[in-house]
Amino acid sequence: xxxxxxxxxxxxxxxxxxxxxxxxxxxSVPLHYRDDIENILIPYGLILDRTEALATEIFNDCGxxxxxxxxxxxxxxxxxxxxxxxxxxxxRTNGTKSLPMMLDFIRLKSYHNDxxxxxxxxxxxxxxxxxxxx
Length: 134
Fold this sequence. Notes:
One of its GO terms (molecular function) is magnesium ion binding. This protein is of the alpha+beta class. Helix content is 31%, strand content 25%.
């Protein structure tokens, strides 16, 4: 699938900069956050639904090619875990196809104390040369 075809297929949700969000009294918000936030811009249920849809799209589009999943820690771990779990659920429940997966984790470092060092250092990852071009 070309990048143009992929872009046509991919649908997105647009949230305008002026959108005030959803008042917290209309949603289930943990008590320890209630005094700190006024509105929720993207509700958790919507994030879960979009993650589910993305997992289905990845599973369907990858054919039988192994899927290499690389998580950038620390910020991406929750989304990464949710997405890969949903892809693995497709592997368990789909009777006609299985998508092999390889998972790896890295951290990126570009600061020393509070100053940027001008380059990004990759920390971790077993052998990054194995995933070059994939």
